[in-house]
Amino acid sequence: MKENIWEQRYKELKNLWGIEPEWTLIQYENLVKMGKILDLGIGEGRNVVKFALKNYDIEGVDISQTALKRCEELLKNVDCNYNLHCTNLLDFTLDLNKYSLIISTWTLNFLKKSEGLKLIKNMKNSLTNGGILYLGVFSKEDPKYTFLKESNKEIEKDTFYINKRDSFITYYDKEEILNLFNNEYEIICLKESYSLDIGHGDKHYHGDIEIMIRKLS
Ligand SMILES: C[S@@+](CC[C@H](N)C(=O)[O-])C[C@H]1O[C@@H](n2cnc3c(N)ncnc32)[C@H](O)[C@@H]1O
């Protein structure tokens, strides 16, 4: 059976997305209450190590076994509880009121828009009071969005199927993300950027949206 694109890419390269956590997580780490942390699309674990070292319980989900093996190597060297699930995000059940931090960076883009939005809704319900949600997604400012819009069929709103990767790609805009959060949530930060990605592959730019919100108690 053909391996999924992620498994192929992780086998080609270690530390595919670098080893540093996202800056926003460093900036606001002190806001995260002691408890359980969930990373959806955890990859090799760069965004959770910092919290593992501070004794938070770590849970992660990813479709790539190779990425999770590397993540486990990192976590087992730290004195923390962890639980890693090798599964599709769409098959993972999020329990209610469980996590003090849920992270999902650069992963929801690979689900259809309807699936991504539903998952964000489930993430909100899975936060404890005072819990924090941190999302990173590609925005419609991404040059690839304009290209795909002109050259590919939309499977559903802002979602395209990429044959070569056997994968979907979805783009978001700031307003639709913001609309998911009413006044029971506080915005910690909202960043939109357009930048050159020098981390992997050929020269390319990304349009990004990062949002961190807190569920008010
Ligand atoms: C661009 S990487 C980002 C990894 C990590 N969040 C980071 O920022 O370092 C996307 C990750 O999502 C995982 N992934 C993609 N689609 C997935 C799915 N449907 N279910 C579970 N994991 C998925 C990939 O294996 C990969 O590790």
For the record, the count of structural domains works out to 1
Can you count the beta strands? 10
Strand neighbour order, sheet with most strands: 3-2-1-4-5-10-9
The poorly predicted ranges are none
Which percent band covers the strand fraction?
25-35%
Percent helix: 25-40%
Q: Look at the structure and give the CATH class.
A: Alpha Beta
Largest sheet: 7 strands, mixed
Please identify which CATH superfamily we are dealing with: Vaccinia Virus protein VP39
Along the chain, the helix and strand elements come as HHEHEHEEHEHEEEHEE
Distance between the termini: 48 Å
Oligomer: single chain
Q: Which geometry do the CA atoms define?
A: globular
Bound molecules: S-adenosylmethionine
Radius of gyration: 17 Å
CATH topology descriptor? Rossmann fold
Summing up helix and strand content along with how strands pair, one would put the structural category as alpha/beta
Average of per-residue pLDDT values: 95
Q: Any idea what the CATH architecture is?
A: 3-Layer(aba) Sandwich
Number of helices: 7
Task: Describe the overall structure.
The chain is 27% helix and 33% strand. It is globular. It has helices at 5-12, 23-27, 49-53, 65-76, 113-126, 143-151, 174-178, and strands at 36-40, 57-62, 82-86, 99-105, 127-138, 154-156, 159-162, 167-170, 185-197, 204-215. The protein contains seven helices and ten strands. It is of the alpha/beta class and 217 residues long. The chain starts with a helix and ends with a strand. The mean pLDDT is 95. The chain has one domain: Vaccinia Virus protein VP39 (Rossmann fold, 3-Layer(aba) Sandwich), CATH 3.40.50. The strands form two sheets. A seven-stranded mixed sheet has the order 3-2-1-4-5-10-9. Strands 6-7-8 form a three-stranded antiparallel sheet, covered by helices on one side. Helix 5 (113-126) links the parallel strand 4 (99-105) and strand 5. Bound molecules: S-adenosylmethionine.
